[in-house]
Amino acid sequence: MNIYDITRPTAPTPLAEGVGDSTVAGAGKKDANEIHSVFAWDAGDKAYAVMVDNEEFMDVDIMDITDPKKAFLLAEYDLAEEFPQILQATPSNLIEVFLHDMIVKEIGGRQVLLSYWDAGYVAVDVTDPTKITYLGDTDFTNPDPEAFESGLVVKPEGNAHQAEFTKLNDFVIAADEDFDPYKLDAKNLTDATDLNASQGSDTRQLEPDETIEGVSVFAGLACNGGPAPVPGDPDATDIAVVERGVCSFTEKVANVIAAGGYDAVLVFNRTGSDGCNGTIGMLVEGDIPAFGVAPRGEGFAIFDEEYDNDDCLDGTGPAQLEVAIGTKGDRLSFTLQFDGWGYVHLFVNQPGKMAELDTYAIPEAHDSAYAEGYGDLSVHEVATSAVRNELAYLSYYSGGFRVLETVGTELEEVGHFIDVGGNNFWGVEVFQNGGREYVAASDRDLGLYIFRYTGK
Q1: Predicted local confidence at residue 397, as pLDDT
Q2: Which of 351, 394, 350, 342 is nearest to 161 (CA)?
């Protein structure tokens, strides 16, 4: 984080540069961790800033910036540990839990609204930043309510990206970001359980509604110089199951292909602070479908091996799956299913679990005819009006700029703008000038637009 004196906007003076959290899991390091975003607030005789830590994903880092030349890390919290009630047990795919964005607004003291991805939206009291307290949080409805309105019965994806309180603080309007209108439906058919994985970035992609189903075969680490995968059966559908670690994903897939006879690859996670039962997307190249990275426990379950996630995180569990290469495991299935783009929620701002009242998406977002060739049709951010409690403004990537009104307990679109040739709106924020409210919206291709809503 950098802090500047902008008394003279054309000549800003740096007060602090590169400050933040300079530890990772207790280990000292020279430079502060990279951050994704920061929000500062004035607490009277104190000033603070809350940051998203890119190197410790779960952390909520709070800096004391009262003396900006001597800014220091005051506190850091893992909300999943502090307030385990925010975690959602079902459906099983809601396991990517990390801080993505936040705002701080004074509501009878101090509140912070945190977008905590698959754990939903979380309100905490930061009146004393060294002792935050839980106020409320949201859960994702299953099946996904917005998709259900379009006739799709799918699990919610989570992806709590960014949110704001309305002017009178009675509601929270929240934006889930989802760039992929297709969801991989992966299952362990033998155990009748879900597999939590996504398609690799640059391997052969499944076609919509295509299914690969077959027997799993353990292929080890599948790294150059190590034990090679045994060949698969060219007359059957075999799925190589590979353990993450030591070499790149692309090298693993190449070695599976070289062994021959495999129709797909599933990668499950390694031990380590960024492994175990966590899941991540997979940057990988190859000519057969590759899926990953699945939680480590799901990889063990395919071969009926016992797994303890606490032991894995402590480093006391097995370093590698103790199964012979070539061992056949459970029957697996992978299907690509259309589930739409990211959309908007309306929640009641109340203690404990916040009730979901309504959702909103542009019509094209849940129409498979618009899944490709029309740009990203996900919402990105919301900015609530500072003058009218019922108004909110949305940046909707290729869906343009949208204006919503809360009517009773429902969200209704009351205005929109898409420029000639299209837009790619990313950020949105309200400001006042001359007694009127304006909205600034940033387009990633075309620059800054200024709007004024002139409707109802």
Answers
A1: 98
A2: 342
Range of the domain at 198: 182-338
Say yes or no: 171 and 190 in one domain: no
**Is 68:15 a contact under the CB 8 Å cutoff?**
yes
pLDDT at 285: 97
Give the pTM: 0.87
- Where is the domain boundary, 304, 338, 372? 338
277 and 425 fall within a common domain? no
CA Rg value for the chain: 24
Asked if residue 79 is part of any domain, the answer here is no
Q: What is the CATH number of the domain that holds 231?
A: 3.50.30.30
Backbone φ and ψ of 199, nearest 5°: -75, 145
According to the model, what pLDDT value does residue 274 have?
79
Q: Which of 338, 370, 404 corresponds to the end of one domain?
A: 338
pLDDT at 312: 94
For residues 195 and 332, membership in a common domain is answered with yes
pLDDT at 28: 67
Given a contact cutoff of 8 angstroms between Cβ atoms, the answer to whether 243 and 265 are in contact is no
Q: In order along the chain (456 residues), what is the average pLDDT of each group of 10 residues?
A: 96 96 75 94 95 93 97 96 95 90 92 96 96 97 93 92 98 96 94 94 93 97 96 96 96 98 97 87 95 96 96 92 97 95 97 98 94 96 97 98 97 97 97 96 97 90
In this predicted structure, what is the pLDDT of residue 24?
79
Q: Rounded CA gap, 175 and 159, in Å?
A: 9
Pair 192, 267 in one domain: yes
The three-point CA angle 402-404-409 to 5° equals 155
Task: Please tell me the predicted confidence (pLDDT) of residue 165.
Answer: 98
Going from the C-alpha of 324 to that of each of 144, 230, 259, the distances in angstroms are 40, 10, 16
Residue 377: which of 393, 361, 392 has the closest Cα?
Answer: 361
Q: Which residues have CB under 8 Å from 400's CB, separation 6+?
A: 416, 417, 418, 419, 423, 425
How many Cβ atoms are within 10 Å of 218's Cβ, its own excluded?
Answer: 22
Q: What is the tally of structural domains in the chain?
A: 2
Within a domain: 455: yes
Answer yes or no: do 188 and 334 share one domain.
yes
13-16 and 3-5 as β-strands: parallel, antiparallel, unpaired?
antiparallel
Let me know whether 253 and 388 are in one domain. no
